[in-house]
Every structure is written in structure tokens, then in C-alpha cells.
Amino acid sequence: MSLQIKDVAKAFARFPALGGVSLDVAEGEFLALLGPSGSGKTTLLRILAGLERPDSGAVDFGGEDFLKLSARERRVGMVFQHYALFRHMTVAQNIAFGLKVRPRSQRPKGSAIEARVKDLLRLVQLEGLEKRYPAQLSGGQRQRVALARALAIEPRVLLLDEPFGALDAKVRRELRKWLRHVHDETGVTTVFVTHDQEEALDLADRVAILRDGLLVQTGAPQEVYDNPATPFVFDFLGEACKLPGQVTGERLKVDDWETDAAFTMDGPVDVFFRPHEVALEPADGQGISARVTAFAARGANLHLECEAAGQPLDLEIHGGEARDYVRPGALIRLLPRRLKLFPAERSPAA
Amino acid sequence: MSERPTIVAPGLAPLLILAAALVMGVLILLPLGAVFFQAFDKGLAGFREAFDQPDAIAAIKLTLIVAAISVPLNAIFGLAAAWSIAKFEFRGKSVLLALIDLPFSISPVVSGLVWVLLFGAQGWFGEQLADRNIQIIFTTTGLVLATVLVTLPFVARELIPLMQEQGTDEEAAAITLGAGGMTTFFRITLPNIKWALLYGVLLCNARAMGEFGAVSVVSGHIRGLTNTLPLHIEILYNEYNFVAAFAVATLLAALGLVTLVLKTALEVRYAGELKATRKH
Predict the structure, then answer these.
(1) Mean pLDDT across chain A
(2) For B42-277, CATH number?
(3) What is the full DSSP assignment across A235-270?
(4) Where are the domains of chain B?
């Protein structure tokens, strides 16, 4: 059953949080809602959970009007950034909670609940910790308990609100892999909120990028990374280098360098490329003229600071591409392997 | 800035500690000791005699009754107020917060007088009440009203910072897991604040039993009828019956000490849950 979000808008007392968002989530899909803080992604998630009510719009789940159901009737599993574990209950009691509060007629037998808790503990790899209290667990373990608790009610949709936001980088990467594994095992439709583009690109089947309460772009991770729809998306999905350019008759000119451009609108453009997608050329070679200002080895890569077309650029060059003419103060040329052009955001007078 | 500890003179610390101990001794321990000393001035018999009086027994009973009504009322009010302030957004929240603090900032005498002004014989509703034969001032009802007003902030003040800190995530989680409002309150919200609630009730109770000013105004000092313990002590004292006055005062002092011990025990045991900022 798919989840259909139609024109959902929500304003809080002083600011609009969502300005009409439409989005479909397919059954079994793993969708990431990606955006900077204040983009409305958490508000959208809370609307799906039934914890917030939209001002307008519709949310439909397999033909059922989700907005008519209360949070407790929707049977969605929600995982919060700060775990929200019941601090006075053990791990096992936390996981069993959703089953124990069911009306008597729908409540599984005690032994069935116990068996389910055991299964879930195995799934989240926390066997043996069932008698611990949340305060006695590490952050990563707490979040796994929270996930097991959400999965216990056999949710129709799993919603995760920055689930790894409070964890350190290493644990975060481990849990990311593991979450994907859990998703593949349970097959539950999952919507995942994050501001971490790496996490979203790494984990999700599809990424929906939000900005200021509006959907900017949706697509598979590679698709949005390769074809960002706006300068914002390009910038948000990874490190970006930006230079001013000019397009005339499908020819792009950046500083003194010209190349063919599949861009039909003539006029000033912003030229975007990734700092690691640049080849270095000697001063008499091809590419944009640049002066090296600093140069340092960073592990396997070289960090190169230079100035091109009056703009400072930070580049990441693979160690194997270092050339002996790259020295501080030297003139070199930069040949971007991949370019993305957007109409210039600066005023024409500037 | 340097990272050296900010000790001005090494010899100063012991001196300051001594000064603090001296102040504590003179201002707190000495008077407390005097209460017990005076109470037993005429031996155990004199002490016991103070409690053989029907007026003393009536005062103890009345104090217990007033506390038994006011404390639960304020516990329920405090819980409801803290719950709404900490877990919901609504207009006028800051006004409610300020109102809850009001009894702390106005004189207890005023807290008593307002009831006289409202329900006394010459008060706003005095005539209507008299017509219906309802008396509030100079009765237990008046005592309860005055006590409730004075002790209103204790429970709420204890719970609000804690509940604000705990946020609403756990309740939200419980609801998405299928729990109803009552289940969520009794199985998630209440267990999370039970120690702070107990702590607030203890403080509220100590004040309810010990309140003098507001109660004095509405009581009318009718012996054996509207005299609570603090008022009874005052009467005994004014009659130069020092032994009896101090003997009864030991009860209140003991109540204070028991509260202190329980409060400290709670603080030690549930430091984490009670760490929310204190304002009184």
C-alpha cells in the first residue's frame, strides 16, 4: 500500500513550515526526506505520524484517509532523534509496550508478547540486554531499542526523525548499514528524515529534498546527485565549487577558457563542479586559469587552494594526480570533468 | 584567563567555612535547640500535659484535616497546571505561569484577607452567603481556602521545570504505539515525575501544616474549633504558658525535620530526576 501526500501545508504561529508538498511513497520503499534545519521535513514526518495536523492537503494510505485517523489508530512506527525511550521501563518492557496497551480483545497472549520481544531483540542485536534500563545503554543501543519498539506493533509505515543525529560519526555509519539491513529484512515502507546528505544518499531508495517548506527535487540518490535541479541542491548534496561564466550560442566562457555547453539560454551563468572532479593541467594546457595559493597532503588526497576568475576555490585532488608544477604561487589550469550550469543568481550589474 | 583555581588567600577557606557554620549555628540550630529545651523545661510530665488538653488535640486534628484537604487539591492542581504548561502550547501560558508564582510573592496575610473580603460578613458575597446560611470565614472551609492559596505553587513549581525538560517525545511515542490518553498519562507521564511530585507534596504539606499568617486572618481563633497548631501555639505563648507552647511547637519542628530528612533522602536517591532548577 502506498502513501500519497497531496498538497500538504502547515503554518505555525509565526512562520510557514510546509507550503504545499506532494509526494508519493511506494510500498516497501525507503525514502529519505533531506533538507537543512527549518526546511519542514520533521513537520511533514510528524504530520504522517499524526502528531501534527496539516492546515490543508491530504494524506492517503492505500485508499484510507490518514488524516481522519488519530496517531494511535494509524499504526505507524515512529523513531525519534532523542530515542524517547520510556526511562522507567526496561528494554523488554519498552519493546512490549505497544502490544500491551492494545485493547484486551486484540492483545496477544503474554507468551506471544514475550516471543515477539525476543525476536525483535535478536533483530536489533540486543539479546541479553532485555532487563537493562535505557540509562544503562549507549546511544546506539538506545536507538536500536527504539526501533525494535516501533517495529513491535508491525507498523504499516516506519517513520524515523533524524534517528542517528545524536550519535557520533562511527556509530552512525554502523547503524546506517544495519538500518538498511533491517529494512530489507522487514520490507516495511520507511520514511527517514535527515539533514545529512551523505546519510540520505547512502541509505535511501529515493531522496526527496526540501527547502523552506517546499519540495525541490525527488529522485534516486545517484540521479539527484548527478542532476541537481537547482544550485541549492547541488550545494546541499556535497562540496561545491562555483565560478561565474557566460553562455553565448551554446558556448561557455569561464575567464579565458571556452568550451561547448549544452545550455540554450544565453547570458551569465553560475558554473558548478565538485572539488574532486577536476583535472590539473599545466599553464599552457586546457582549462580555467588558476593560481595556487596553498597545497597540502590530506591522507590519500591533496588539498589544493587556488584562485580562479577572482574566486577562491578549495579542491580535493587524488594523490596520484599530483604534478610537480603544482606549487604555491604557480599558475595552472583546472579542467572540470563535469560541469553543471545554472542561470546566474547575481544581478547583471554586478 | 588563567586556569588556576580562584583562591584569593589559602587561609581564607577554613575561615569562611567557620563563619558559615557559626551563622548556621546561631540562626538555625540554636533556636531549634531552644524549642526542644523549653518544651522539656518541666520534664516529660510537663511536655505530656501540653497534649492532654482537648484544645491541643482539636488543633492537631484540625491541622491534619486542613492539610488532608489542601494538599491533595494542590497536588491535583499542580499536576494539571504543570502538565498543560509543559506539554502544550497555548495563549496566555506566561500569564498562567506568573499567576502560579503569585502566592509566593504576596504576603500570606493578604492571602487570608482576600477571603474575608470575598466571603466575610461585610464581604462582596457576605449577604448572599448569610441568606443561605453558609459560613466560610471562621470555619474549616475558610482555613482550607487560605491554605490552598498559600501553598498553591509548591507542587506546580516542582513539576514544571522537570516536565519541560522531559519534553513530549515519550508521550508522542506512546501514542504512536497505540496508547490512549489515560494510559499515556498513567503509564508514561506520571511515573516519570513521581519523585518530583512526592517532593512537591512534601514541601506543600510542611507549609500547609505550618502556615500561620493567612490562616490567622480567616480563623477567628475559636478554641477547639478553628485553631490550627500554629495558632494554638500562639495562644499558649500569649498566655505565658511557655512549656506548653514549646511542647506543641516541637510537633511542628519535628514535622519540619521529617520533611527535611525525606527531602534529602529523595534528593540523594533521585538526584537526576530532581535536578531541575529550584526556585524556593
Answers:
(1) 89
(2) 1.10.3720.10
(3) HHTS--EEEEEEEETTEEEETTEEEE----S-EEEE
(4) 1-39, 42-277
